Structures are given as structure tokens and as C-alpha cells.
């Protein structure tokens, strides 16, 4: 049981590090490998705000707290112009396969 909890914690910390890097909260540093990024940038502000919204909704035992938090922060970013709507489903912009050149 201890190994299972350790593996789950390791995977969770790995995913958290990726999320913090993508939000700009954690940046690369040659001396210490990681350091604190610029928290005044919109992605970092939205990530921190989303974390606090999800935490508050979970504390209040709201069903679907994570989904409500993600959708709420996404809509707020769209309204404020920091995120663009690409449709419900779309192809990546830079995907270029050699096969598609002849079609």
C-alpha cells in the first residue's frame, strides 16, 4: 500500500510541475534548475485564481468543483481577451504531415 501511495504522489507532483511550468509560475534557472517566474503575467494569475476557485468550491462541497473552476476561468480569460476560442474541436495549426501535401 505504501508503494502505491508513493507512485500516486510522484505522478501527482510530476503533473503539478508540468502545470506550473506551462502557467509560467515555475521557470528554468541554470543555477537551481527551477525558480519562481513572473506572477504578474496573465497565465500565472489565471492559474492561481483557478486553483483558489477550485479549492473554495471543493471546501464548500460543490459537485463538479473542478469542472466549474476550469470552465469559469476559461470563460473569464476569453472575455478579457487572453484566450481565443478555437471551436469545440479543431486540428492543431502547425501539424504538417507529408501525406497531406498530395491530397
Automatic annotation (TrEMBL):
Its main location: membrane. GO terms for cellular component: endomembrane system; plasma membrane. It is found in: Endomembrane system. Keywords: Membrane, Transmembrane, Transmembrane helix, Transport. The lineage of its organism: Bacteria, Pseudomonadati, Pseudomonadota, Gammaproteobacteria, Oceanospirillales. The keyword Membrane applies. It comes from the Bacteria. The chain crosses the membrane at residues 44-60, 65-82. This is SLC26A/SulP transporter domain-containing protein. It is a multi-pass membrane protein. It comes from Vreelandella sulfidaeris. Coiled coil: none annotated. One of its GO terms (molecular function) is adenine transmembrane transporter activity.
Amino acid at each position: 500500500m505504501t508503494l502505491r501511495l508513493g507512485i500516486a504522489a510522484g505522478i501527482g507532483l510530476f503533473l503539478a510541475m508540468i502545470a506550473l511550468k506551462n502557467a509560467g509560475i515555475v521557470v528554468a534557472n541554470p543555477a537551481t534548475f527551477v525558480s519562481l517566474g513572473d506572477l504578474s503575467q496573465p497565465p500565472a494569475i489565471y492559474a492561481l485564481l483557478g486553483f483558489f476557485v477550485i479549492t473554495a468550491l471543493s471546501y464548500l462541497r460543490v459537485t463538479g468543483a473542478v469542472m466549474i473552476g476550469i470552465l469559469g476561468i476559461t470563460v473569464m480569460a476569453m472575455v478579457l481577451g487572453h484566450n481565443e476560442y478555437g471551436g469545440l474541436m479543431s486540428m492543431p495549426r502547425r501539424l504538417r504531415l507529408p501525406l497531406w501535401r498530395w491530397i
